[in-house]
Sequence to fold (255 residues):
Amino acid sequence: MKTTDIGAAVVTGGASGLGESSARALAAAGVKVAIFDRDAERGTAVATDIGGLFVSVDVADSASVAAGLEAARSAHGQERVTVNCAGIAIASKTVGREGAHDAAAFAKVISINLVGTFNVASQSAAGMLAAEPVGADHERGIIVNTASVAAFDGQIGQVAYGASKGGVAAMTLPMARDLSRDGVRVLAIAPGLFSTPMLQGMPQEVQDALAAQVPFPHRLGNSEEYASLVLHMVDNAMLNGEVIRLDGAIRMAPK
Fold:
């Protein structure tokens, strides 16, 4: 599927970081983009800048997702591309100084990162399946989810985050197989250490130390590189059911 076939896209977490860069890259390619996020001020600003639409959506709430998709489709038509970047991270060990990992905190991470990704992907796919196929391969759409290297190299204190991203990675192939008959592809990107708001809030010396861990290039990734891979995934129909690490060959140590 080519960008000229897309028409409309939905990007969750599009108010900042990987999602914002993905939204901007798609808009630059001529796609009408709907941004789903909880940050109304920043999300509205980005949407206005790219000529898109902002919708306040809680991805963990299926009803909120349904309402968001209805608003996006009313404005732009059926999305052909959905990029899931919404997510949170916490740092907590299975058993810490204060005892066992807080169950509610664990559940919140799973709810947003994994269940939220599933909510948007499944409901978006339902709309795609009702659309007419496009292009030589008769595609109906593509869903790109965000996993993480923590799915495979989860560090100390990342049990909740690693579990949530491991779930995103694990559902990629079965979801792709579920939707393959109807021409919808599903992929996941597993970023390594990227210069996103999550890392930018750390002291510069910490950021430099993290960047030094990347074999090559010796730096943090930038969100435009993530967005570039999203666009390539759209264009390359043979990419399907795969989780692609985008990490400069890093393999995370325990801490």
Observations:
- The two ends are 41 Å apart (CA to CA).
- The longest helix spans residues 103-129.
- Strands lie at 8-12, 32-37, 53-56, 81-84, 95-96, 99-100, 141-146, 184-191, 243-246.
- The mean pLDDT is 95.
